């Protein structure tokens, strides 16, 4: 009832241990706290907060327009509702290395378990699009080092994403990955790798845990959890999947109401009122306070 029973530091400790466990952590993207609750209910290991999905939810393209405050507020609202660890997309750190440092401290206060910074120049864009630009290695290293130095909870995970695949191939990815690991990154996010062979090459060259971004309509082959486990990947994210699925359903529903004049045809595909209340733990609230109106499951 109400919020997660675990403290932020308990969730962070669990996340760090999970990253070192060798077990694949599946982290679907939650574009709202309710989606995060559904992810937890289904038994996934963690929740990802996608910058692209968050921007889209605000009606914006993913080009670095969202602010630290907006991302932190959504992250806090999401993290507090689940016992699972939450990993947040911190884009380029919202500015200079000093901004990356502040981002870490704000994210610690938001109660999330970690965040990642990418080595793109601003305005950044989705790593699966053409035309990204990278900052030089020393600038990216300063970004990561500043984030690491600012961290107060040693279990807070700092991820380093490199978009170097499009700028020098796997060789450049590995070179940058090593520099970021040396700067203290806990987790490597090699963006937009093409296939299993490329993950294999990065895994062989880098010691720190690796994240695989299984985003749709991008440059990466969609690998299964079994394939990713075999490759020694530690975290898999499905960053925008839930948003895309929901928007697909919403678009079809709007067409159906527009065409038929009623939502009657849609009812069977809806999450039932009972299931929603069950997910929200409605009955716990009524047990706690009998003055809270209980629908008794009736509509
Ligand atoms: C992971 C990502 O950074 C995100 O914001 O979720 C995006 C995902 C996407 O746009 O499909 C990315 O740059 O890969
Ligand atoms: Mg992003």
Give me some keywords for this one.
299 residues, alpha/beta, TIM Barrel, five-stranded parallel sheet, binds alpha-methylisocitric acid, binds magnesium ion
Protein architecture, described:
The model has no long low-confidence stretch (mean pLDDT 96). The chain has two domains: 8-240, TIM Barrel, CATH 3.20.20.60; 247-288, no CATH class. The chain has helices spanning 8-20, 33-41, 51-57, 68-79, 97-109, 137-150, 169-182, 196-205, 225-230, 241-260, 273-280, 282-288, and strands spanning 25-28, 47-49, 86-89, 114-118, 157-162, 187-190, 211-213, 235-238. With 299 residues, the chain is an alpha/beta fold. Helix 4 runs parallel beside helix 5 (97-109). It has twelve helices and eight strands. 44% of the residues lie in helices and 11% in strands. The strands form two sheets. Strands 2-3-4-5-6 form a five-stranded parallel beta sheet. Strands 1-8-7 form a three-stranded parallel beta sheet, with no helix packed on it. The structure holds alpha-methylisocitric acid (MIC) and magnesium ion (MG). Magnesium ion binds next to helix 3. It catalyses: (2S,3R)-3-hydroxybutane-1,2,3-tricarboxylate = pyruvate + succinate. Keywords: Lyase, Magnesium, Metal-binding.
